[in-house]
Specification:
The complex is a heterodimer of chains A (about 250) and B (about 260). Chain A has nine helices and ten strands. Chain A has about 250 residues and is an alpha/beta fold. Chain A has a six-stranded mixed sheet, with helices on both faces. A four-stranded antiparallel sheet of chain A has the order 2-1-4-5. By secondary structure, chain B is mostly helical. In chain B, about 75% of the residues lie in helices and about 0% in strands. Chain B is built from ten helices and no strands. The longest helix of chain B is centred in the first third of the chain and has 33 residues. Chain B is globular and about 65 Å long. Chain B starts with a helix and ends in a 6-residue tail after the last helix. Classes of the chains: A alpha/beta (about 250), B mainly alpha (about 260). Chains A and B meet through strand 6, helix 2 and helix 4 of A and helix 1 and helix 4 of B.
């Protein structure tokens, strides 16, 4: 079963007196159920535009994006998805508990199961002691934890995380990694973009690298072991070359 | 349908909590009470027969404050979610854009109506404590104002998809406060050119009529109850026109890129 299918995706933005800017330019890839896939690229490569399209925040200019076989713009597709945006400042006038209750109710949860899930998630992200403090009084890292908790509401089958560890301190990053490992054990598919390549190397099965809206490399991390010094070196070389320099080597081997 | 109700209820609860925790409502409340008390203070100078004056000041203050509060509450519903990026986790849920729009309208309508009822009740209590009474037409005034709030929320939310927040607030306040003046000018033009002038009739039909929902002067001058069918017709106008505004907003929002 494929959790994500992206085929010939084009996302273009109109500009005054200029041709449209193609943030995503004919991108195609698939993510299978249970996989953890890192979506890499420099700033402006088209990662966020792709993720926005997958989440139905914008319609593709051409091509298609599907989640569990459903069109990404179909609201029902999001029943199976948890999403953590790059930067989300949750309502300053709500508490983490109220924030999670809002998103839980929007997800279709209610009553005792919702309360139990909120309490378990606050415990998991270590925010139980701040459950009833207004969001405006929480640190950036704590708000990011609220975000992680809301992404996990409703036991999603697919987690889409945009710049997952931004704002987290080293302990928070470690806890997040453990949390993602738990999700992996449950069979949750995880698709995330990140600039933290060490983190990507530690939890991903596969990486996709995009540049100027095009896929320039796609590898299982196990294929790269022993062939590259570090993921960071490989990423920089690949992006600088603008194409997948190891593709041929790996295939030849 | 049940799902839409659940979504609307969730958004309304969160919206109400936010409004209560902000300070705008309390400022408005204090200002209205101060204005009413200030008007009644003329008694100290021995001025007799002040009832109508005090009532006029009180109901004008309620009208102005309610309109400002309604516009501010409705204008921030969607733009603020976009600005602080909370729209992402909201729209990441299995809800359609139409459901979000409806939920946000209901939140603004419910919150602004509640503020209005609280404001009107406190002012009524204040007037009664000063020995000033109002006739049962006050109930019709409350009902009609609530229809107007629903209509105004729909217009402001629709305009928020086309204008910047500042431009939206400015234009909405001009349309709300100016509607009475515009319509009086149009009536004068009708008087001048006759009732069958097409462009005048078109203009009258297109211009928003927030002034239809204001019965405050009738309360001030102790009118008897208006026929209930008039309120029915005005409720119908608020409903149809409000739905029209929401449709205008949805046409833009349904394909809009979020963020």
């Amino acid at each position: 079963m494929r959790a994500i299918v992206v085929r010939n995706l084009v996302v273009a933005y109109r500009r005054w007196f200029k041709p449209p800017f193609r943030a995503v330019d004919g991108l195609s890839f698939e993510v299978h159920q249970g996989e953890i896939v890192g979506f890499l690229g420099v700033n402006g490569a088209g990662k966020t535009s792709t993720i926005k399209t997958l989440m139905g925040f914008q319609s593709p200019t051409a091509g298609e994006a599907r989640i569990f076989g459903m069109d990404a713009t179909d609201a029902r597709a999001r029943q199976l998805v948890g999403f953590l945006p790059e930067t989300a400042l949750y309502s300053p006038y709500l508490t983490p508990y109220e924030t999670l209750r809002l998103y839980g109710e929007l997800h279709g949860l209610r009553g005792r199961p919702l309360r139990a899930q909120i309490e378990a998630l606050l415990e998991a992200v270590k925010l139980t002691h701040k459950a009833h403090t207004l969001n405006k009084n929480l640190s950036k890292g704590m708000l990011q934890r609220v975000g992680i908790a809301q992404a996990l509401l409703g036991d999603p089958k697919l987690l889409i995380l945009d710049e997952v560890s931004s704002g987290l301190d080293p302990i928070g990053k470690r806890e997040l990694r453990d949390l993602l490992a738990t999700q992996r054990e449950r069979g949750t598919t995880i698709f995330f973009s990140s600039h933290e390549l060490a983190e990507v190397a530690s939890i991903c099965d596969r990486i996709l690298i995009i540049h100027h809206g095009k896929l320039i490399a796609e590898h299982r991390l196990s294929d790269l072991v022993g062939r590259v010094d570090s993921l960071e070196d490989y990423f920089i070389r690949t992006v600088q070359a603008g194409h997948d320099i190891l593709n041929e080597e790996v295939q030849a081997a | 349908m049940m799902r839409t109700v659940q979504i609307t209820r969730a958004l309304m609860t969160a919206g109400l909590l936010e409004t209560v925790r902000r300070k705008d409502l309390y400022v408005v409340l204090i200002l209205t009470v101060l204005l009413t008390l200030g008007a009644s203070a003329f008694r100290v100078f021995g001025v007799q027969g002040l009832e109508i004056f005090v009532k006029d000041v009180a109901f004008t203050a309620i009208g102005v404050m309610t309109t400002i509060l309604t516009v501010l509450i409705a204008a921030r519903q969607i733009p603020e979610e976009m600005q602080r990026r909370t729209i992402y986790p909201l729209m990441a849920r299995p809800i359609t854009r139409g459901q979000l729009l409806l939920g946000k309208w209901a939140t603004a309508f419910f919150t602004a109506s509640l503020c209005f009822v609280v404001l009107a009740s406190i002012t009524l209590g204040l007037l009664l404590s000063l020995g000033i009474t109002v006739k049962p037409i006050f109930i019709q005034y409350l009902l009609l104002k609530i229809f107007g709030i629903g209509w105004l929320c729909a217009m402001v939310i629709a305009l928020s998809f086309y204008l910047t927040p500042a431009a939206n607030v400015t234009l909405s306040l001009i349309l709300a406060f100016g509607s009475g003046v515009f319509n009086r000018l149009l009536l004068m033009a009708h008087w001048e050119h006759g009732l069958d002038v097409l462009w005048l009739n078109l203009l009258y039909g297109v211009l928003p009529h927030y002034d239809y929902f204001d019965m405050s002067k009738k309360v001030v001058f102790d009118w008897d109850l208006a026929p209930w069918w008039v309120l029915g017709v005005l409720a119908g106008y608020a409903l149809l026109s409000g739905m029209g505004w929401l449709l205008v907003g949805w046409l833009r929002f349904r394909k809009q890129t979020i963020g």
